[in-house]
Design a protein that fits this description.
HemY_N; 22 helices; TPR-like_helical_dom_sf; elongated; transmembrane helix; Heme biosynthesis protein HemY; 3-stranded antiparallel sheet; membrane; single chain; 58% helix; mainly alpha
Length: 651
């Protein structure tokens, strides 16, 4: 527009001048060397203009002839340069498309046409990288780093080669050099921050970030986020070694990024341990409302150490109200209810999630079945469903699933790379394994309870059996004592004769005889020195001779053993003199076999006593009895009851 105005102004001025000269034609007279020229002013001016144009044209032709060699050389260089740039372009495109042959040809052409161009060196280095010639690539990058215009490009290439070779230390040194040369250079600053974070130097990483912010190399939002991540990482690292500094770092990180889960969780734990429960609860609830996370629920539940399970359940209810529609709220509430043994409430909370349960929901149901009903079968059924259920979120960075958050990726080293999301193609996550351990513990508790009950029942049965055995042993001991007493009374009787003597009133009282041993037992002679009989000798009562007993025996009816039970015989006084050794020491008593009637026991079948000269049957038990003293002592004064009056039987 301006040029058009200027052109119009010039044309107007020219027209005005021509018109002005036409109005004033004038005359010009020129006389030179006999030549006389007369003309008007306009004609003279026109002739002068033509002459000037002709001279200018002639000068241009002469100048072109004089400068033609230089012009041709410049044209040749221009064509060569154009071909070189075309080769560089073709080479870069070939590398991008993976055409190795085209890249090599383009590198050759570019090196021939543009040997000193930075892009030619870059093409040569990238082609060497593409071919796998690392040494050639490193040499080209070193050459580029030596030149000021390509210094940063060469350092970038050297840094990449060092990381590819796994030399993290060399990569960090190169990045430090590049960041010092250009504090706002993004890749250099990121590499330095990542290297310092990997080494645990979080204050140094923050210093590099501050220099980048001062050089306007990063926007304010990204700066606040990165600083919060670095502060949270430092707080987590110092949580157990320096809680005071860690609390300050975590609080500042929450101020910069209130929804950063690791920062909020760390701040909640440290503030809760310091007794600032309200501030800690506010931080955790704010973060949970934006990003419901199980770690925040865990921190909220254990803000006050040592709280009962019901108190934890109350706090989780308050936290769940901050995000009532979140799935994590229901899971956290169910977890707290199970810990508090509020099984009905836990089942009610999990019921809406059972239509499409995740793996954690299935494991919570398994734990609930085991804890509430001790139903291991249903617990295993829910555990099996967890294998096929939807996956739960986890911390993921570059395809790596981690059980905890980290400031940088373990693969690429990128800052703030971890995100809370559902990992694709992963069947088990660390949080799922943690819940599975809870289910195993619940099932183990059920089994332990059942084993404890079984052990208690077995112990009771064993105690009862032991008591019965002790009672039987005591009864057997008492029976053996009674047998010994009765055997001593029998041994004190006079030796057998053809005619049994009548009972003497002065005879010592005796206890019932020992019960006969089983039939067909061999004869045994036991020395009288043994004070106790063999345990297989069974006590049997001795019925009185004559009277009613004799009548029963005459009828051939056996007497029951229990009907002749009597109290043990009284022991002889300790002051009585021992008998003289002799035949009395070898005296034995032959007891009738069990089941024998009174007549059979003492006189053979059908008789009330043993016939004179009759021999004792072989099926009898022989028990040694110590001799009684000569004088058993005076009889007790006064009559005795018939039921307790001792009877004596002379053998």
């Amino acid at each position: 527009m301006i040029r058009l105005v200027i052109l119009l102004v010039v044309l107007a001025a020219l027209a005005f001048g021509i018109g002005w000269l036409a109005d004033r034609p004038g005359e010009i007279h020129l006389a030179w060397e006999g030549w006389r020229v007369e003309t008007t002013v306009p004609v003279a001016l026109a002739a002068l203009a033509v002459l000037t144009a002709a001279l200018m044209g002639l000068w241009r032709v002469l100048s072109l002839l004089l400068r033609s060699p230089q012009m041709m050389a410049r044209h040749s260089r221009r064509r060569r340069r154009d071909k070189g740039w075309d080769a560089v372009t073709r080479g870069l495109l070939a590398i991008g498309t993976g055409d190795v042959a085209a890249a090599r040809q383009a590198r050759t052409d570019a090196a021939r046409l543009l040997p000193n161009e930075p892009l030619t060196r870059l093409l040569t280095a990238q082609t060497a990288q593409f071919d796998g010639h690392r040494e050639a690539a490193v040499a080209e990058f070193h050459a580029m780093a030596e030149r000021s215009e390509t210094r940063l490009l060469g350092l970038r290439g050297l840094h990449m080669e060092a990381r590819r070779a796994g030399d993290q230390r060399a990569a960090a040194v190169i990045a430090e050099e590049a960041a010092a040369a250009a504090p706002a250079l993004a890749w250099a600053v990121d590499a330095v921050i990542e290297a310092r974070c990997a080494a645990g130097d979080f204050p140094g990483a923050r210093a590099v970030l501050e220099r980048q912010m001062a050089q306007k190399g990063i926007d304010k939002t990204q700066y606040r986020r990165r600083r919060a991540v670095l502060l949270a990482a430092e707080a987590v690292a110092l949580e157990h070694t320096d809680p005071l500094v860690a609390r300050e770092r975590a609080t500042e990180a929450v101020r910069l990024a209130p929804t950063l889960v690791p920062a909020a969780a760390c701040a909640g734990r440290l503030l809760g341990a310091a007794g600032e429960l309200k501030k800690a609860a506010k931080i955790v609830e704010t973060a949970f409302a934006a990003n419901p996370h199980p770690e925040l629920a865990e921190v909220e539940a254990h803000l006050r150490p040592g709280d009962a399970a019901l108190d934890r359940l109350k706090r989780i209810r308050v936290l769940a109200n901050k995000a009532p529609s979140a799935r994590e709220s229901a899971i956290a509430l169910a977890r707290a209810a199970i810990d508090a043994q509020e099984f009905k409430h836990a089942r009610l909370v999990l019921e809406p999630l059972l239509a499409d349960p995740s793996q954690r929901v299935c494991l919570l149901m398994a734990e609930l079945e085991a804890a509430e009903h001790a139903d291991i079968g249903k617990a295993r059924e829910w555990t099996a469903r967890a294998v096929r259920a939807n996956r739960d979120p986890a911390w993921i960075a570059d395809g790596v699933v981690s059980d905890h958050w980290a400031p940088v990726s373990p693969i690429s080293g990128k800052l703030d790379a971890f995100v809370w999301a559902v990992p694709p193609g992963v069947s088990a996550t660390p949080i799922l394994e943690h819940e599975a351990e809870r289910v195993k513990a619940a099932i183990a508790a059920v089994r332990a309870s059942e084993e404890a009950k079984a052990a208690a029942l077995a112990a009771d049965a064993e105690a009862q059996a032991r008591a019965q055995a002790e009672a039987q042993a005591q009864a057997q001991a008492e029976a053996q004592a009674a047998q010994a007493a009765e055997a001593s009374v029998v041994a004190a009787a006079p030796p057998p004769s053809d005619t049994p003597p009548a009972p003497s009133a002065a005879a010592a009282p005796s206890a019932p005889l020992v019960a006969p041993a089983p039939a067909k037992a061999p004869d045994r002679v036991v020395p009288a020195a043994l004070s106790a009989p063999r345990p297989d000798a069974v006590a049997a009562p001795v019925p009185p001779v004559g009277g009613e007993a004799a009548g029963n025996d005459a009828k051939g009816e056996p007497e029951p053993a229990a009907g002749f039970a009597a109290k043990p015989a009284e022991q002889a006084p300790e002051t009585a003199a021992p008998p003289a050794r002799g035949d009395d020491m070898d005296r034995v008593v032959r007891l009738p076999p069990p089941g024998a009637s009174l007549g059979t026991a003492f006189g053979g079948p059908g008789g009330a006593g043993r016939a004179p000269g009759a021999r004792t049957p072989r099926a009898e038990t022989i028990v040694a009895m110590p001799p009684l003293p000569d004088d058993p002592g005076p009889e007790p004064d006064g009559p005795e009851p018939d039921g307790h009056r001792p009877r004596f039987l002379g053998l």
